[in-house]
Write the structure tokens for this entry.
Amino acid sequence: MTDWLGAAARDNARWCDLMCRAHGIPGTFTDLAWTNRVRTPPFYPDAVTLSPEATAADLLPRIDASPGASVKDSFATLDLPGFDVLFEAQWIFREAPEKAATSWRVVRDEVALAEWERACGVKDLFRPVLLDEATIVHAPDLSAGAVLTATGPAVGVSNVFGDWSGMLAAAAGLFPGRPLVGYESDPSDALKQGFTTIGPLRVWLNRRDSRQEIVQRRVLQHRV
């Protein structure tokens, strides 16, 4: 059987790496974790564990662990000295949705990406190079949208805003027969659309971080 929790963690780490590469700061993968020695873009972690066997010693020497550093503890198993739990969440999984009629569109160019980014509620974060490897979709009126990343046996779902059912139809049309994975701090909307929770995760933050950055990171804690 496929390890969907592991697949979800790996897909999320690849999405984080894609975002970092778009900003010119690629990370490094090992069997235990993805890490980045340079501080990552806002709302994105400096490390993502890929195995429950990963420890603080496997992560902290490989990142800038100064105030503001964050770690995505994909299996909720870490003990990180000097860090506090910023938030907890649940990995989610759904069997492949059935094809359905949809008016959702794929972002194809820089202008459309800027419009999508404004609708999503962020600024100067999503770079056009992301479109080479991620599929960014939205409702025609930009009232809803999501990022889809097909890096493994399942399609990763992130940055969801608005209508989850529309996202499902878009994913089914673009990636037929592929199950979906992701994570949510509040999975209630996902559960209504046939997702199930498959395991906990935590995001840790250096406790000396400023209050302002803590608030900013909380805003998008379910989107990245």
Notes: Residues 214-223 have pLDDT under 50 and may be disordered.
